[in-house]
Specification:
Blueprint (H helix, E strand, L loop, with lengths): L22 H27 L1 H8 L3 H23 L2 H4 L1 H19 L2 H8 L1 H33 L4 H8 L2 H17 L10 H4 L4 H13 L6 H4 L4 H8 L2 H32 L2 H18 L1 H8 L1 H19 L6 H14 L2 H12 L4 H39 L1 H7 L18 H8 L3 H9 L4 H14 L3 H23 L1 H19 L4 E5 L5 E5 L4 H12 L1
Length: about 550
């Protein structure tokens, strides 16, 4: 019987593995990896909740906010891809330490936005926020480049299950962030409307924890490195046609999961108020629970069948979230959407880890990086543009004079789509409460040039029309958000078709099987429905 040498013991086993890790240290490293995603989820969710504050305080359009939000994802993809080429060489610990430093730096830069706005204006403020969120995404990309292959290394016999548990940290962070938004981040906040700067810093708490663990613990080497797989062999593995197809699907996953998560609180807040954050928190709870139980579900259905069902649920839920419904129906739609997207990201990584172990950290990193780049450069800006596009046409048709008064100073464009002059967030906010917030802010900062300029517009241009403009402007914003969600539902429809093709392909080849590497780098196929440890043992016996 051939010996199969894996790095990392069973999580319930005793003794030290070949890297000198006890089960307690193994759990500590896994939990620290989990906390990186808690930090990412909190930062992501809170940023989605404070977009309205940025729009109202700094006068950004939805397209502007979409680009800013996308900056918090784009660098994520760049660093995942770049450092995945070196993760097996430099080690996971070095990547996590660098990520820790960048997360601290991101907070420092982002918190400088308001002072810079008041001293240097909107343009400088925009780039301060862009750089701050981009640095955050660079840090999280480093984390992702490390924690996915690290988890596969710690638990090589049950990758999909533990990757789903790991990525429960993401909705766990979203859940915490959504609750923070519900209590503190909106004008209708249930406790108090807290300054966005305070909320934007909360992610530093789990960051400090994972930084501490990373400094003190010894980390294992990767499964691919332990099996002697070279970088050249990894590059060869990632050029497999099926893996390239999976990369394409992961780009769609990034667009629909992260792009939508970034906008959905902001969109639904226009009709639900602070309850939108509560709905977002509920969806995150559903995801958190389902990812913990993904292992048994995957083994009963198989990962690709699960992904096909999940994409179908995601499309149905997202479409009805964008419909003019409230009450029970919108909560039901949110539940269906949350069930669907619970499995997208970690199960995709699990499939790649199971089918392409020779790709090592590079295969997982490229897949996650492509998903993040799609979310950052396509999802965030694309959904923002779609809102501007539909709000523009709606308001032009219903109240063209109101549109002329509230439109942004410059047009926005997305890819090859036509340039659209969206609605100025500050002006929309002023119309919504008939200048009450503006008067309050101006009383606190009477010499602030931006507030003085906005007040001049309100008193000389808008005030005579504010009562008449409130309804059509509000309805245009709501319409733009709903249409954006419905258009985005086409993405999981396409995903479902892609997964169905893969299911049919594997049925034609005898069913989906996971692939494992032994100590010599040999690949062993294992039927996915079997108990993995027994199946690996049996496969090793047959090939010995």
């Amino acid at each position: 019987m051939a010996e199969i040498n894996y790095q990392g013991p069973s999580p319930l086993g005793g003794g030290l593995n070949e890297n000198g890790l006890s089960p307690a240290r193994q759990r500590a490293i896994f939990f620290a990896s989990f906390m990186t995603l808690i930090a990412a989820g909190i930062g992501f969710a809170v940023r989605g909740g404070i977009l309205a504050d940025w729009g109202a305080e700094f006068g950004f359009t939805k397209s502007d906010l979409g680009v800013l939000f996308g900056a918090g994802l784009a660098g994520f993809g760049v660093t995942i891809i770049f450092f995945s080429f070196f993760a097996d060489t430099v080690g996971y610990r070095a990547l996590l330490l660098l990520a820790f430093v960048l997360l601290i730096l991101s907070a420092v830069i982002t918190l400088a936005a308001s002072p810079i706005y008041h001293s240097h204006g909107q343009h400088a403020c925009y780039w301060t926020l862009y750089i701050g969120t981009f640095v955050f995404s660079l840090a999280q990309g480093l984390c992702e480049a490390a924690i996915n292959p690290l988890t596969a290394t710690l638990f090589p016999k049950n990758k999909t299950h533990y990757l789903n548990i790991l990525h429960a940290g993401w909705p766990g962070g979203l859940m915490i962030g959504g609750l923070i938004n519900y209590l503190f981040a909106t004008k209708g906040a249930k406790v108090a409307h807290v300054q966005w700067e305070i909320l934007a810093s909360i992610y530093l708490l789990p960051t400090l924890y994972f930084g501490f663990v990373t400094l003190k613990e010894k980390f294992p080497i990767s499964e691919a490195k332990a099996a002697g797989i070279s970088l050249g062999q990894m590059i060869g593995a990632v050029l497999a046609p099926m893996l390239l197809f999976l990369f394409l699907i992961h780009a769609m996953v990034g667009y629909v999961e992260l792009g939508t998560d970034g906008w959905i609180q902001n969109i639904l807040n226009n009709t639900m108020g602070a309850t939108a954050s509560l709905l977002f928190t509920y969806c995150s709870i559903v995801m958190f629970i389902l990812r913990f139980f993904a292992g048994p579900i995957v083994h009963k259905i198989n990962p690709l069948g699960l992904l096909c069902i999940a994409a179908t649920c995601g499309a149905i839920g997202l479409y009805f979230l964008g419909s003019p419904t409230t009450g029970v129906i919108i909560w039901a739609a949110a539940t269906i959407f949350a069930i669907g997207k619970s499995f997208y990201w970690p199960t995709m990584l699990g499939v790649i880890g199971e089918r392409f172990p020779r790709g090592g950290a590079l295969a997982m990193g490229l897949s996650g990086g492509i998903g993040m780049l799609s979310a950052g450069f396509l999802g965030g800006p694309g959904i923002g543009y779609t809102q501007d596009y539909n709000a523009y046409h709606n308001l032009q048709a219903s109240a063209p004079a109101a549109y002329d008064r509230v439109k942004a100073d410059k047009p926005n464009q997305f890819l090859a789509f036509p340039a659209i002059q969206g609605l100025n967030g500050q002006k929309v906010d002023v119309i919504g409460d008939e200048g009450a917030t503006l008067k309050s802010d101006l009383a606190k900062k009477p010499t602030d040039e931006s507030l003085v300029s906005l007040n001049t517009w309100y008193t000389t241009v808008e005030k005579p029309h504010v009562t008449a403009d409130a309804k059509p402007v509000g309805e245009a914003v709501i319409y733009g958000g709903r249409k954006a969600l419905q258009v985005t539902s086409l993405v999981p429809v396409t995903m479902a078709g892609c997964y169905l093709l893969l299911v049919i392909y594997f049925i034609s080849r005898g069913g989906y099987k996971a692939v494992h590497l032994d100590a010599s780098g040999r690949e062993i196929e294992v039927a996915h429905t079997a108990s993995e440890e027994d199946a690996i043992e049996a496969a090793g016996t047959q090939q010995a």
